[in-house]
Write a structure and sequence with these properties.
This is M23 family metallopeptidase. Its cofactor is Zn(2+). InterPro entries: Cell_wall_metabolism_enzyme (IPR050570), Dup_hybrid_motif (IPR011055), M23ase_b-sheet_dom (IPR016047). There is one protein chain. By secondary structure, this protein is of the alpha+beta class. Among the domains are: about 90 residues, Nuclear Transport Factor 2, Chain: A (Roll), CATH 3.10.450.350; about 100 residues, Nuclear Transport Factor 2, Chain: A (Roll), CATH 3.10.450; about 120 residues, Distorted Sandwich (Glucose Permease (Domain IIA)). The chain is built from eleven helices and 25 strands. Helix 7 runs antiparallel to helix 8. The radius of gyration is 52 Å and the shape is elongated.
Amino acid sequence: MNDARMSMTEASDGRSAVRAMRAARAETRPPETPTPKAQSGTTLAEKWVGDLGSDIGSARWFRSLGLLISLIVVAFAFWPDFSALHAAAPARLSDEERDEYRSQMITPLALGADSGRRMGPLRLVVPLANAPERPVVELTATLGKEDTLAAMLRRAGVSGNDAARVEELIGNALPLEQIGGGTSFDIRLGRRANPSQPRPLENLTFRARLDLELAVAREGGPLALERRVIRVDDTPLRITGTVGSGLYRAARAAGAPAKSVQQYLKALGDALDINREVSAGDNFDMVIAYRRAETGEVEVGDVLYAGLDRRGSPRAQLLRWGKDGRFYDANGQGELREGLIRPVNGAVGSGFGMRRHPILKIRRPHNGLDFRARSGQPIFAVTDGTVIMAGRNGGFGNFVKLNHGGGLATGYAHMSRIAVNRGQRVKRGQVIGYVGSTGLSTGPHLHYEMYRGGRAINPASVDFVVRQQLSAAELRQFRSQLIELKKVKPGAALEPLVPASALPAEPQREADRLSNAPG
């Protein structure tokens, strides 16, 4: 107990010592001097704010009372009005007024807006029983790829009788098949007497060819056709230049169209190795079929001549010749065609030689290759040739045989359908039939044979190398054409056309020329 009392006494003495130290610090601290602003606020508060319960009747008490009354008056002055707000239903708009407002709204069309450059009708507007039609309708119609002329005209609003008459008139001028898809027709339709009837055709104009424009017009009577011949310049476009850093880039920079450059490179690549045999100093020379009308239209055709010169001597001279459009060199020799393509897309299932026949159950020679393929797959000619047989051929079923010249021929058996006729010329890769299982066959496949001198040989052991040679008569015409193209001046096809009015109406006679000569 005594120890506890001593502890409490010591704690009490400690707290007393702390209080004494704090008091000593407060006495030694200098008094804080109030700022002028604080002094002003304190003076104003002491002057106006007071306790209304003390010093009643003093000047300070009356000032405090006046301040309280002023605050109460201000509060009542700004007291909100709790009376009901006055409201009214919007005026009902008529349909005409609503349309008038809608035409002035800035609102998405999906929400009902009807904005534009027009104003809504007012009450003074009188609706018409029938809106007046335009006296003339002018439009442009385009012929579709698989469309007919009459059907296109009817869709454009031409009556059935006028459409049939137009088709008849144009058909008498040129075959309708020559009017290709995408041809534009300028049509003008006149006034009609009854809105339920189609408008009468007044005029129709279109470009039938580069050198011909046809017009069908109604000049106070029935429809009549007018032919307008357009003068066309057929001068070929010749482009020459130096190979430089690249043949394609140089030809394009010289102004040759991309399609023409590709044809030129293809023809030149069949005659020589472009990567190894063409140098930067060589000069390329190409002549392109080019037609331009006096109205400004241009038609760019195929490359007619592809040449390459080295230091003034021809390195290659290739001319397009014949219906097939193949290139021949200056000696009349055609492009080299070597190798065979696969007759069908499929793997070889049975090779050439002796084997046991799956149906006859006997061993006998298998004179060809069997290609596994699905029924209906196309069968291709392995190279150019002429069909010498096309039809049923015993155990071969539907059979096609091609003669390739030089004593070589190929046969294609078990077809489901034949796509060529006897005597027909076929090209390398052309479809000649379809895979089937006709004749002595256990399933769809192609039996492919090759013959040399009439005897069957192993097709896998032969590669074709074909180079066509022009006959003597064709060679003379060929060289004459080559000389004419070489005479064309580079860029001559791009010179301005002489106006038709500047050309003589007819050739001048020799007698007239001599009579008009001076002296």
